Amino acid sequence: MALLYLMTERAKGSFGSMARSATMADDTPKKHVDETIEALAAIYEAHNAEAGLLQRLADRFTGVLGQPVATGIILAMILAWMAGNVVLAHIGVPAPDAFPFPSLEISTTIAALLVALLILTTQRHEDVLAEKRARLTLQIAVLSEKKIAKVIELLEDQRRDNPLLSSRLDAEANSMANATDPQANLAKLDETEDRKGT
Fold first, then answer.
1. What pLDDT does residue 11 have?
2. CA 193: distance to chain centroid?
3. pTM of the model
4. What is the pLDDT of residue 29?
């Protein structure tokens, strides 16, 4: 009986440790995902915090104008203005902007200029964020390449030092163990593109 009790307790303990290990293994990916999401959110928050009041207003205004509803409302207002002036002219009342609607033309031209400037302002703000993302991606790619080269180098050292493994020269592994030079690769890419262009 005592033996059965001890075996049961041991089984419970082993199952408990297995469950805790499984729980920790399940929590680890979630933790990495949460940390990644928080890091990305911090980048966007910092970018938005750098924008001034006018920049935020421009972003919000272009965001509203970019909605399909805004396009419909603007077209409806233009048609209503034109129709109203035509109706007033037909019933003999002096129209504030008779055909060919010069005031409407001037207003729409000024509005189009302002919208174009707002779009350029918003695009410039987004380009700054895109440049930051590109630099961050490049930095991560270079760092990852260096880490992979170091891992390959350590594996090759282990293979050479382990007497149970055959020691042979692997030129490809030796080449991959050396981190590439981004500047040299960029120059080689430019040279290749120049040759294709000519």
1. 41
2. 28
3. 0.56
4. 60
Given a contact cutoff of 8 angstroms between Cβ atoms, the answer to whether 119 and 126 are in contact is no
With a cut of 50, list the residues of the chain below it in pLDDT.
1-19, 21-25
Amino acid (1-letter code) at residue 187: A
Residue with tokens 């001037």: 106
So what's the pLDDT on residue 28?
58
| Inter-residue contact 196 to 156 (CB < 8 Å) | no
Residue type, 148: I
d(CA 139, CA 43): 15
Residues 149, 178: contact at Cβ < 8 Å? yes
Q: Check residue 59 and give its pLDDT.
A: 86
